[in-house]
Amino acid sequence: MSRHTPTLRRTVAVATIASTAFALTACNRSGSSDSGSGGGTKTVGVSLITKDSTNPFFVAMQKGAKADAAKNNVKLTVASGKQEGDDQGQITAIENSIARGDKGILITPMSTGVNAAIEKARKAGLFVIALDTPPDPASTVDITFATDNRSAGKLDGQWAAAQMAGKPAVIALLDLFNDKIVSVDYNRDQGFLEGMGIDVKDPKKNGDEAKTGKYTGGKGGDYTIVCNEAGQGAEDGGRSAMEKCLAKNPNINLVYTINEPTAVGANAALKAAGKTALIVSVDGGCAGVASVKSGVIGATAQQYPLKMATLGMEAIAKIANGGEKPKPSPGLDFYNTGVALVTDKKADGVESITSDEGAKICWGN
């Protein structure tokens, strides 16, 4: 294996420092306990509730938690919605966790529709940690372990503006939902626009910015926003959303996508229409990194779901055994698990790693 480049070392170093700092306050992986109960660490019931069990991001999160559960003496229950948008599936899983007497819940909250169930769990004494998707408001849970999704979107936008090099940007925004408010959705979308140098109005609302104007990122230029379409975070949704956008304007040359399955679907629609466009995305799974390598995706912001799940589980196990609660990262209202832009087309002033480097630290198949 080749040595990491200086850029990758900096990226990994940030993640390592964050992990090490947290590990100093996390539970002892050897199974010993300072809970004062006289003996070993007690078994702790924890539920991991993801949005679905098919998205590679959530599959990686589940696998990582399962692999790490025994090290922390955790009895782990894994549950999820049937698909993106299944609030009731998550609500049922939360209620089951309360009924089992679990000590904590790790959840990627579907939307504000699950807030009341989370509050019920906390009132019942469970420590609730959101993973990947900070709830709105953030105080709905005890703490969130997540990527800084705003920063992830900004990296995409800064890179895209540099690549446009002053040319008119005809933009399609392929979001997660159009009927639910999810922080990861608006933070990535609005972060992308901010990175492009496009003024946003309500930073927590997609689609209310001016549809035409000037972007100030890179060399600056004119922009037109053709559409905000919901792809539901899935490949087929991304394809249908892109088809709708192309029907509005066939000259789209820049596509932002909420995640990599959406990006793959968007590329399929573009290819079928005989069109090409620069595509940016977020996630950094191994399949997504391979899409960067092949040129399907121009750049993707890589996040680390396994770290979110394992650190969250360690935190609940520690708390259940009398330890301290985790604290947010400095200057944020959540615990930041890191992000790195993966691209093979480096842009001046935008820190990134190559697809080969990203493949060494990616997740999923």
From TrEMBL:
PROSITE patterns from the UniProt entry: PROKAR_LIPOPROTEIN
Subcellular location(s) of the protein: Cell envelope
Domain Periplasmic binding protein: 47-323
Protein name: Sugar ABC transporter substrate-binding protein
Record bears the keyword Signal: yes
Keywords for this protein: Signal
Coiled-coil spans in chain: none
Signal peptide annotation: 1-23
Short name of any one Pfam family annotated for the protein: Peripla_BP_4
The keyword Signal is annotated on this UniProt entry: yes
Species for this entry: Pedococcus ginsenosidimutans
UniProt record similarity statement: Belongs to the bacterial solute-binding protein 2 family.
